[in-house]
């Protein structure tokens, strides 16, 4: 249904847009940023037009941007940790805690078990087993 609506409404607009870009490209300086952008877009037409045939494809990246926003904000806030080392440590821990949330893992339970395992001499060769996506309560 979504693909049919896109074929009816968006396909003519997309075709007109690419026609405009093709006509505009020879009229602008070849080294300009506009020419660079037009060449980039026109050489990727098939990729751009995929959304017309596949209704599952989203037109923007808002879903992904909303999903990663907490991690990026936390990392940015870690710049004010007092030192470079402290900031890196804060960013690393905050990223791991956000990864827990993204994997439906209780961050406190994961961190508690992980710290217990490290204190009990968890083998460094099996560090991947400690990652949030491998956590089992």
Topology at a glance:
Blueprint: H1 2-24, H2 33-43, H3 45-48, H4 50-53, H5 62-77, H6 84-102, H7 107-119
Describe the fold and architecture:
This protein has 137 residues and is mostly helical. The protein has two domains: 52 residues; 68 residues, no CATH class. 66% of the residues lie in helices and 0% in strands. Helix 6 crosses helix 7.
Brief overview:
The protein has 137 residues and is mostly helical. The protein has helices spanning 2-24, 33-43, 45-48, 50-53, 62-77, 84-102, 107-119.
Q: Overall 3D geometry?
A: elongated
Q: Please describe the biggest sheet, giving its number of strands, its sense, and whether it closes into a barrel.
A: none
How confident overall, as mean pLDDT?
88
Q: How many domains make up the 3D coordinates?
A: 2
User: How far is the N terminus from the C terminus?
Assistant: 42 Å
What class, by secondary structure content?
mainly alpha
Give the ordered list of helices and strands.
HHHHHHH
Could you list some keywords that capture this structure?
137 residues; mainly alpha; elongated
């Amino acid at each position: 249904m979504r693909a049919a609506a896109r074929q009816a409404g968006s396909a003519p607009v997309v075709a007109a847009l690419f026609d405009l870009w093709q006509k505009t490209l020879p009229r602008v300086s070849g080294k300009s940023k506009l020419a660079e952008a037009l060449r980039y877009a026109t050489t990727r037409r098939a990729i751009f037009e995929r959304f017309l045939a596949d209704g599952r494809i989203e037109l923007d990246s808002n879903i992904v941007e909303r999903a990663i926003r907490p991690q990026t904000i936390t990392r940015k806030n870690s710049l004010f940790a007092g030192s470079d080392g402290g900031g890196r440590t804060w960013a690393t821990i905050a990223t791991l805690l956000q990864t827990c949330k993204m994997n439906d893992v209780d961050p406190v339970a994961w961190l508690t078990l992980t710290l217990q395992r490290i204190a009990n001499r968890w083998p460094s060769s099996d560090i991947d087993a400690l990652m949030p996506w491998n956590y089992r309560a």
